[in-house]
Design brief:
four-stranded antiparallel β-sheet, 0% helix, Immunoglobulin-like, mainly beta, four-stranded mixed β-sheet
């Protein structure tokens, strides 16, 4: 599983797209967005996207769960840096 930065510069949000090896969106993926003070769990929508509009911070993203039929690294994590951005997270369809 890998993540890469997207091309767009979103205003006011962290945007995470979760796709499989064929670039198909993966709905139902649970991810924690954590700061030094709190974690907020979010789930990808039907387009495989999470939009998190929390205050800008160096968010620590933790992959919590993928839907049945998909595989992901259970120890996956990503640090966003202190600014909003857009990322693509890849998981594998079995």
């Amino acid at each position: 599983m890998t993540a890469e930065a997207g091309n767009a510069e979103p205003a006011g949000a962290y945007i995470l797209h979760v796709v499989d090896q064929d670039n198909a969106p993966v709905p139902g993926v649970y991810v924690n967005f954590c700061t030094d003070t709190a974690c907020i769990m979010k789930k990808t929508d039907e387009t495989g996207t999470i939009v998190f509009d929390g205050a800008p911070d160096n968010c620590h993203l933790q992959l919590l769960k993928v839907p049945a039929g998909y595989t992901a690294d259970p120890g996956y994590e990503l640090y966003t840096g202190p600014a909003y951005g857009e990322w693509v997270l890849y998981v594998w369809k079995n």
